[in-house]
Specification:
30% of the residues lie in helices and 34% in strands. It has helices at residues 6-13, 22-31, 74-88, 103-107, 138-152, 157-164, 205-216, 233-241; strands at residues 36-41, 44-54, 57-65, 93-98, 112-122, 170-176, 179-188, 192-201, 223-229, 245-255, 263-266. Strands 1, 2, 3, 4, 5, 6, 7, 8, 9, 10 and 11 form an 11-stranded mixed sheet that branches. β8, α7 (205-216) and β9 (223-229) form a beta-alpha-beta unit. Coenzyme A (COA) binds next to β3 and α3.
Length: 273
Amino acid sequence: MSPSDFQFATKLANTMNWNMAPEDFEFMTSLEPEGCFVAFQGAERVGIATSISFRRIGWFGNLIVKEKYRGKGVGSILVKHAVNYLQSKGVKTVGLYAYPNLVNFYGNLGFKKDVDFSLLHTERLGSVIAETLPRVEQPQINEIEDFDSRFFGGERKKLLESIILEKGNLSYYWSEKDMVVGYVTATVYWSMAWVGPLICEEDNVDVAIRLVKAVLSKLTGKSVYLVLPKTEVALSNMFLDVGFTEDFSVARMFLGESTAKNCIYLAESLERG
Ligand SMILES: CC(C)(COP(=O)(O)OP(=O)(O)OC[C@H]1O[C@@H](n2cnc3c(N)ncnc32)[C@H](O)[C@@H]1OP(=O)(O)O)[C@@H](O)C(=O)NCCC(=O)NCCS
């Protein structure tokens, strides 16, 4: 995928109400220039998919084929092509989030279902009261990246830095005895925001709630999205209490050994894990 494909990719993605802008594909291709693909039938663009490598782990997403070309194998080719690309970069495990009706489609390509996640959304977040937490600044970045990679299983340095260091985004951490036990970031746009990633050590849901509230307290009035495992009941209830509802659910699937460690987790995005 090159810049001349961004308009096509955006228009196609938004036939699914994915709410994307050309900047999303610009960001994706800046992170993984060789890992974003357009399928052609002759000279016509007919589908897209993106992927990103984090050393051992890769993530696949944004798969969509033009309606009149579906059912002819294009989707499967895009998945296989991206998986081959990721494996050529040394990725051992590929993850993705699948709509429930596509679990069999990905299953036929070798992916195995892991846990179910909910996409939660509020169109206009009300005011949330929170304590002030320490922000992640340059000196903490290495420690946060190491902490993240212990649980995520791959190295998300390039992605985390592009979120944390971007002015206007939010990131907070919590430490005990000088050790990080959790962090959260949010990507903030003019009228909307995406909360995540969040990673917190298991059994620290109170810390996760503090971190999330610190972020939400800065997002009043915005349309806010996040993705979390359905098993994370206490955290989920907190979001429902402040007005979030479930838009849809997705299944996390892995090709290769699942390396996700038990932790409290909010996804960075559907297309990058
Ligand atoms: C999912 C999608 C990309 C598949 O592309 P495609 O080119 O139609 O896929 P293929 O032709 O390679 O399909 C392979 C198989 O999966 C099945 N399949 C494809 N889409 C399916 C769907 N939505 N539901 C159930 N089965 C599906 C096909 O029937 C086919 O089975 P067969 O080989 O037994 O005939 C396409 O349906 C699409 O663009 N959907 C809308 C976007 C979307 O949902 N993206 C995925 C986000 S997780």
